[in-house]
């Protein structure tokens, strides 16, 4: 049996949270994402503002009390920056731990990172997220009797 491997010229290095963070920095150096935001919208909104070779970038607006629910980003690594307000990220490692980020707080994470992000504040928050490589799937979870259970898997072009 013969194994065939891609040539070194076609192999791309594995994307990391540093790739996502660099994509955020690059985007912010040339764009003002807050100019795109309507803080009066009563529901959490998200829009992909850039789709690149290295990363996808999403702008999310968070009314007070809104959250993502428990989820991961498939194998994509990521980073996000809080541009306005504050967000609390609960990370699952068998138990939930919380960190609150205020503008201009930045968070990086590797692939298969499971978290829930919530705006516990009294005013809207805005964040910019990058995923490297681009976000292709998200797994949703529900906390049941102290354990996370998969409830669905969303895939790009099927759900969003």
Structure characterization notes:
- With about 160 residues, the protein is mainly β.
- The protein has one domain: Jelly Rolls (Sandwich).
- It is about 10% helix and about 45% strand.
- The chain has one helix and ten strands.
- The strands form three sheets. Strands 1-2-8-3-6 form a five-stranded antiparallel β-sheet. A three-stranded antiparallel β-sheet has the order 5-4-7, with no helix packed on it. Strands 9-10 form a two-stranded antiparallel ribbon.
- A hairpin with a 3-residue loop joins strand 4 and strand 5.
- It is globular, with a radius of gyration of 17 Å.
- It starts with 16 loop residues before the first helix and ends in a 5-residue tail after the last strand.
- The N terminus is likely disordered.
Attribute tags:
about 160 residues, mainly beta, Jelly Rolls, five-stranded antiparallel sheet, three-stranded antiparallel sheet, about 10% helix, globular
Order of helices and strands: HEEEEEEEEEE
Question: In the residues, how many domains can be counted?
Answer: 1
CATH class: Mainly Beta
Question: What name does the CATH topology carry?
Answer: Jelly Rolls
Structural class assignment: mainly beta
CATH H-level superfamily: Jelly Rolls
Q: If you average the pLDDT, what whole number results? A: 88
Low-confidence sequence ranges: 1-13
Biggest sheet architecture: 5 strands, antiparallel
Shape descriptor reads globular
Helix content: under 10%
Total beta strands: 10
Number of helices: 1
Family: Belongs to the cysteine dioxygenase family.
Keywords: Dioxygenase, Iron, Metal-binding, Oxidoreductase
Protein name: Cysteine dioxygenase family protein
Pfam families: CDO_I (PF05995)
């Amino acid at each position: 049996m013969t194994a065939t491997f891609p040539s070194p010229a076609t192999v791309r290095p594995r994307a990391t949270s540093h790739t996502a963070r660099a994509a955020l920095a690059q985007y912010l150096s040339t764009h003002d994402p807050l100019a795109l935001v309507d803080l009066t919208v009563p529901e959490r909104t998200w829009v992909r503002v850039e789709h690149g070779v290295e990363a996808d970038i999403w702008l999310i607006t968070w009314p007070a009390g809104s959250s993502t629910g428990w989820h991961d980003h498939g194998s994509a690594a990521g980073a996000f920056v809080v541009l306005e307000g504050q967000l609390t990220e609960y990370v699952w490692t068998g138990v939930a731990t919380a960190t609150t980020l205020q503008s201009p707080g930045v968070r990086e994470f590797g692939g298969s990172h499971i978290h829930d992000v919530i705006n516990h504040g009294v005013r809207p928050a805005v964040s910019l997220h990058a995923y490297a490589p681009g976000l292709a799937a998200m797994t949703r979870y529900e906390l049941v009797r102290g354990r996370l259970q998969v409830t669905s898997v969303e895939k790009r072009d099927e759900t969003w």
